[in-house]
Amino acid sequence: MDTTLRLGEPRELLALIPHQLGFRPLDSAVAVSLRPPAGEVGLVVRVDLAALADDETGPRLARGLVAHLDRDGARRCVLALYTDQDPRGLEAHPVHRAAARLREAAQVPLGDVPAWVVTLDGYLALDCDEACCPPGGRPLHELESTQVGARMVLAGSVVAATRDDVARIRRAPVEARRSVARVRRRWEERRAAAAEAGPQATAAWRVGSVEAWRRATDPDVDGRRPASGSPLGRVEAGLADRRVRDAVLVSLVPGTGDLPERAVRGAGLDARADAAVGAAVAAIVDPQVAVRPPDDVRRYEQVLEQVVAHGRDGGQAPALTLLALVSWWRGDGARASVLLDRALAQEAGHRLALLLVDALEAAVPPGWVRAGGEQGPPS
User: Fold this and answer.
1) CB of 31 within 8 A of CB of 77?
2) What are the C-alpha distances in Å from 339 to residues 57, 60, 285, 319, 327?
3) Organism's domain of life (predicted)?
4) Sign of CA dihedral 247, 296, 173, 162
5) pTM
6) For residues 161 and 315, what is the distance between their CA atoms, to the nearest angstrom?
7) Domain locations in the chain as residue ranges
């Protein structure tokens, strides 16, 4: 939803930010791009307040934020700072250092940066004395009765209580997890036996893993997700194999047909399949050939969420990373960021997760967003 705001409408802007992020920020600094000519809200970027206030990391982070806003076409910027108390009169409060860092970096490209503070109890202009904004700020309930807030709610926007809540996945019941674990262990044993038997056996195991993914993501006659633990256990074990994970990634892209199966079949990767895999990935990333996520992309997310919910603790980096990729593809950077944090906490060197982190830190949108439209799927 495009939203145009004037700088004299801080209530509207502060009401919009949680909807743009998908969660209510805490201990955060949020920079908002305002594009010409009328102040359309563009990029909304959140960083940790402490990181922006830090003497060592703050200046570099501020320059990076301003660079992102500049690439977004910003001509003005507003800074919203979220903390637990009114910082006025507290010279050592990190809010003051964070605001100074961003203002210094933004002075030439963006000019003066208005800074607003949202506390646990109120909101206020950072540069305002108490004659303008009362102690503790104006009451927060004023932010709940705004035009933009009402529009976002009517459009179906839901704001999570915290950043972690935007990607929270509930653990499945113990017995259900045990059932999936038994299947997973048997499929892992099959993988070990296939490795000893040779490349053809390994290729067959990979094809079986992709087939399990196909079964798990095919709706049944009632249109519901399959309840059987068998596909989930095989999918979980299969995703630990990079070739299988890449095949699952390819299956997300419309028009790829049997490419996922071809990508894992055979002792070596067929050159044509290799090129087609690259084309499928480009359909997500490259604006020249980009496609939008399919209308039913949610069914893939549901299965990956079920893998995480039923899977082994500490072993879900592949599923979490694919979930993050789909979230980023849909344009939900907040959810993607949280999922990537969780993936890297489980596997610090996960290469695909690290690549996605780079894209998010550089504020790179998916290809279809950069292209401004939709083109055809890879052949």
Assistant:
1) yes
2) 24, 25, 19, 10, 9
3) Bacteria
4) positive
5) 0.71
6) 27
7) 10-162, 174-371
CA distances from 156 to 149, 153, 296, 302 (A): 11, 5, 18, 20
pLDDT in tens, the chain (379 residues): 455 554 447 888 898 898 888 888 999 999 999 988 878 888 888 899 999 999 999 999 999 999 989 888 899 999 999 999 889 888 889 999 999 999 999 999 999 999 999 998 899 999 887 667 788 788 888 887 677 666 665 556 667 777 777 788 999 999 999 999 999 999 999 999 999 999 999 999 999 999 999 999 986 534 444 444 579 999 999 999 999 999 999 999 998 888 899 888 865 556 666 777 788 888 888 888 888 898 889 999 999 999 999 999 999 999 999 999 998 898 888 888 899 999 999 999 998 899 888 888 777 778 887 776 444 444 3
Structure tokens, 208:
């079986």
Check whether domain 10-162 has CATH 1.10.10, yes or no: no
What is the C-alpha to C-alpha distance for residues 81 and 137, in angstroms, rounded to an integer? 13
Residues β-bridged to residue 46: 30
> Are residues 118 and 82 in contact, defined by beta-carbon separation less than 8 angstroms?
yes
Structural tokens at position 251: 């299956």
